[in-house]
Each structure stands twice: as structure tokens, then as C-alpha cells.
Amino acid sequence: MIQKATLLSVFLVAAMFSGLLVGAYELSGAKLWAALIGPTEDMSHFLIWNIRIPRVLLAATVGGGLAISGAAIQGLFRNPLADPGIVGISSGAMLFAVLALVLLSTTLSNLASVFQQWTVSTFAFIGALLTTLLVYKIGSQKGKVQVASMLLAGIAITAFAGAITGYLVYKSDESQLRDITFWTLGSLSGDIWVQLSIVGPIVVIGSILIQRDARGLNAILLGEKEAAYLGFRVEKVKQRVVVLAALVVGACISVTGLIGFVGLVIPHLLRLLWGTDYRGLLLYSALLGGTFLVLADNLARTIVAPAELPIGILTALIGAPFFVWLLLRSQRQIPML
Amino acid sequence: MRVPSQKANSRKSPFSFPIVAIAAVLFIFQLTSCTSEADSQEQQAEEEAPKAERIVSLSGTLTEILYALDMGDRIVGVDITSVYPERETSELPKLGHMSQLNTEALLALEPDLVIYEATGRGAPEAIAQLEQAGITISAIQTGQSLDNPINVTSQLTDLLDIDESSVSTLQDRLNSERETLNGIVENVDSTPRVLFIYARGMGRLMAAGNETSASAMIELAGGQNAITSFPQFEALTPEALVEAQPDVILMFTSGLASLDGKEGLQQIPGISATPAYQKDRILTMDGLYLTGFGPRSTQAAIELAEGLHLPIEAEAG
């Protein structure tokens, strides 16, 4: 397992270095080094330290956070189709972000621009947590979390939030609509150091805590009763995983907008390759998810330069065909979970 | 289903090392970045900004005004809404939409002035980033009036060494066009009800309220906005369409094209009950031309006024 983790770490570091090298602003290796170690006459020092480095770190953090949460949620629900969206995280974040975007262009339009972006992020984060809490409450009876009813509650809440979002979209004008569309496609641009200083700790600490429940998730694979017989406090594991996943994913998408595919498919890709053992799978997912998003963002920044492609388009565009190829190539029986 | 073995229970979590390492690196980067930001801001404050030579314009209207002031050759990059003058703007690097700026690509153009319109949903964070980079960024105040090009020009003269003769040429042209417009509007006794429909395919039809730029142009051209019950854009319903009783329907050329022309227009529920449709009074104009309030806005108002009034007079005569 150490070898696999090392291999994936090497990939991640390599991807992050490639992220430093590519971009619309041309920088040779030597110039890059000079800009890294000290101030330069041109923009390159600013560019490296305020745009490329934080952006690569943000991509790695968000990709890792989305993938590890996806893996944990799939394990918890014993459902290969589960992703953090299934407990209402994405739909809640979406509803509140859209609400913020609509409010900003009407009642809150006098707010300074710095606060405007933060309003959207804060709203999205609160929305993610609120809907998850609601789904969790509906799904738990007498202090016990019923995974099946939580799943169904998640679907219901998602539909309900979707309806209100739909109404807001229907009422919104062209510029609001454009903001909403871009938000649902995700973006890693913005005042990144500030974003990173908030998202980074949440994702890193949350991921470490999720990793600590890896053995519990392994046991839940057998069934909840069986896990309890093995000595795991199943209710506690379920509580922790849901809350942590909501925190991590909520923090990620509150600054980037919706980025699909990573949380759903990165864990499956690793299951196909190396099987389902959450002690390794969670860690691998974090590393590969980070690598994947860094590489996707490299493309997003350069492919239509000097403009920029929303990253959510690229994650699915590159990821899905690769995943299908892997499915077709896979000789052994596919482990659903 | 694969059942993992329990033998490795005592093994330490493999997560700690890489994550802690990343966290540490992240923290160090954070510290260093703060100091570099402070440096660049100090440098910026020291010297007065010189007159700009390399301009990035993030608004179609501002781009058009710069060209009208013979400043076009200093523009090094524009946003996606800058489409006029067509040939010149098509040759410039397009930076996408204002809300999705690629900061790095913008810096690569090495601008010494970035201008954008102050209206709308504020500046995106990319603007704050550019300010940190020490680039002069100016939010230009704009308004829905035919004086807009002149008001913008006076703001631009603080940032650019615009030739005075270019300014007076523009001013003279606008003045004489204004007289033509007044001549048309003063000599009509009817104020037709005009409904502006914004269309992006059948699924997205919106009516312009009475505080939109389309409504402002309709009033400048001597018409009245058929909608008085809401200020901004609202989805177009068949009942609202019938209630508005528009004499003329006004659309962007691209909007009518998205409905497959006038053939497609008849599929809008309720439209056949309007006087405008029955008398075939459907006007189309280019979006930036009609609602941009740039240097061609008075021409656009004249064209709209002629479209609104002249056929009626011809009918009456």
C-alpha cells in the first residue's frame, strides 16, 4: 500500500509541477526559477506566487477533497452511484448559491465586490450543510441512521431544492443566468490565497478524519449488523462520515462552484485497479483526485487562451472516455463496491 | 464483494505523512505570498500612473468608444462583448466574458490600463488580483442616455492622452445626429406601444421592463414601453403579451434568428392576438448597436424612430 501511495504522490507532485510550467503567460524554466526565488522586473514573480502556485494547490486540494468524500459516501451507502450529491450537498449548495447570485444583482448590489464573491461562497457552504443536516434528520429514527431512508430523503430534498432553483433560474435575467450557469460549471479562478486558507484546512483535516474511519467503512461493506458484531460503533461511523463529507465537499464547491465527475468516478477507477479496501482507497482517491483536477485545470487555463474554459466541462470531457476505456479493458469482474 | 483482512489493524494510518507535508507547504506558501503582495502595492503607490499605451477593454461599449476616439490602435485585448468595429475587434485577443477572466492571459498581454463598466454585479475577483499586480484598473461609470459616450469620454481623458480634435469630432457628430433625432420625434403625434422581446430560442423568451436599456431607447425614439408593471426582464407569458397590446415588437437581430425568423415567431403563444403581429410590425436591430449606448446610439435611436413612426405617417398620408 505504501508503494501505491508513493506512486500516486509522485503523480500528484509531477502534475503540480506541470501546473506551474503551463499557462497563457509564457515562462521558460530558467525564468520560472528566478521568479520563484525572488522578485523580478516583469510580472513573472507575481504570476507564479499569486496565480499559478495557489491555483495548483487549490486544484489539488479540491480534487482530493471531492474524491475522498465521494469514496467515503459510496462506502457508507453501499451504493456505487452515490456521490456527495446524493445526501443533498450539491443541490443545497446550488440552491443557496443561486439565491445569493440573484440577491446580489438586486437587493445586495451595493455590496463591495470583495464581499460579493464571499456572499456566494458563504451561502453555498451554509446551503450544503443545511440540506445535509435536513436529510440526516429525516433519515435517522430513534438515534439510528437508516441509510435507505436517508438516500430517499436525499433524493426528495434534491428534487425540492431543484424546483426552487428552477424557479429562481426562471425569474432571473440574462446576466444572472450567466452567473448561475458559470457557477454550475465550476471555476478555480479568483482571489485564491484567501480561498485556499479557508478551504485548505477544512479539506485536509476533514480528509484525515475520514481516513480514520476507513476500517469502519470496510466493516460496513459486510452489512451494518455484521459491522456491529465486529465491534465497530456503526452509528458513530455513519454520523462522522456524513458530517465530514458535507464539510469537505461544501467547502470545496463553495469556492469553485459545481465540479462534477471527480467524486463519482475517481474512486471507481481505483476500485477497478486495486480493489475495495477503504484503508487504501480513501488515500488513493485523495491523491488521484488531486492529480486529476490539477491536470484538468492545466487544460482549462490554456486550451482556449486567452479566455478560460470552465473546469466542470473538462473533468467530465476527459474523465468519462478514459473511464469507459478502463471499463472495457478490465478483464476481471467489476467490483461494484 | 471483497472482504478486507483484519490483520493490519495495528498499522498506522497511511494518510498522515503526505497530507501533513502538503499542509506544511501550503502554510509556507501562504506566508511568503503575503509579503510579496505588500511589496507590489507599495511600488504602485510610489509613482503616478503614466498615460496608458496598452489598453484592455472589458466592455463592448467602451471598446467602441475607444475606436471612435481614434484610440483603437492602443487596444491589446477585449472581452467577448466587444464586437464592433467588426474587423478590428475580430483581430484582437478575446478574453472571454468579464465574469470568467483568465487573469494570467490578461497579464500576458502586458496592459497598463484595464477598463470595465462599473454597472452590474460588481467586479469579479480577477479585478482584485489585477490590482495586486499593479495594473491600473478603472471602473467607468455608464448610463442609459445618449450622452453616455461623452460622459465616458470625459472619464477616459483622465486616463489617456486623447486627441482633442477626436473628442470634438465625436461631439459634433453626436450633436448633429441629436438634431436629426429631435426633428423626427418632435414631428410625430403618436407614441406607439413597443414591446421588446429578448429571445434565445423558444425556451427563453423575456419581455423588457420599463427600466431596461431597451426601454430607454424606445422612449428616446418617441415610443412607449408596452410593459409598465415590472422594471427588469421577466419571462414572457401569453397573457402578458396580449395585455401589453404592442403596436410594434422590437427584437435583437440575433434574437429573431434564434426563433428561425418571422416563421418561428408565430409559434409564440398569444403573439397572433397582438396588433404588432397582425400588422407585421416586427423590428430587429443589432444588440450592441441598439442597447450599448455607445457612439452609434443616436444613429440607432434615429433608425428606431424611423422604424416606429414613418410607416404610420405613410399609412395616414
How do the helices and strands line up, and which of them pair or pack?
The complex is a heterodimer of chains A (337) and B (317).
Chain A: H1 2-21, H2 29-37, H3 44-77, H4 89-104, H5 113-139, E1 140-141, E2 144-145, H6 147-171, H7 174-185, H8 192-212, H9 214-220, H10 224-229, H11 234-256, H12 262-274, H13 278-302, H14 311-329
Antiparallel strand pairs in A: 1-2
Helix pairs in contact in A: 1-3, 1-13, 2-3, 3-8, 3-11, 3-12, 3-13, 4-5, 4-6, 4-7, 4-11, 5-6, 5-11, 8-11, 8-13, 9-13, 12-13, 12-14, 13-14
Chain B: H1 16-46, E1 55-57, H2 60-68, E2 75-78, H3 86-90, H4 103-108, E3 113-117, H5 125-132, E4 136-140, H6 148-156, H7 164-186, E5 193-199, E6 205-208, H8 213-220, E7 224-225, E8 233-235, H9 238-244, E9 248-252, H10 253-258, H11 261-265, H12 275-278, E10 282-285, H13 287-291, H14 297-316
Parallel strand pairs in B: 1-2, 1-3, 3-4, 5-7, 5-9, 9-10
Antiparallel strand pairs in B: 5-6, 6-8
Helix pairs in contact in B: 7-14
Summarize the structure in short.
The complex is a heterodimer of chains A (337) and B (317). Chain A has 14 helices and 2 strands.
Count of distinct strands of chain B = 10
Task: Summarize the amount of helix of chain B as a percent range.
Answer: 40-55%
Strand residues, percent of chain A = under 5%
Fraction in beta strands of chain B:
5-15%
What sequence of helices (H) and strands (E) makes up the elements of chain A? Answer: HHHHHEEHHHHHHHHH
**Poorly predicted residue ranges of chain A:** none
Number of helical runs of chain A? 14
Description:
- The complex is a heterodimer of chains A (337) and B (317).
- Chain A is an all-alpha fold and 337 residues long.
- Chain A has helices at 2-21, 29-37, 44-77, 89-104, 113-139, 147-171, 174-185, 192-212, 214-220, 224-229, 234-256, 262-274, 278-302, 311-329, and strands spanning 140-141, 144-145.
- In chain A, a hairpin with a 2-residue loop joins strand 1 and strand 2.
- In chain A, helix 9 packs across helix 13 (278-302).
- The two termini of chain A are 19 Å apart.
- Chain B is 46% helix and 13% strand.
- Chain B is an alpha/beta fold and 317 residues long.
- In chain B, helix 7 packs parallel to helix 14 (297-316).
- The longest helix of chain B has 31 residues, at 16-46.
- At the A-B interface, helix 1, helix 3, helix 5, helix 7 and helix 8 of A face helix 1, helix 4, helix 5 and strand 8 of B.
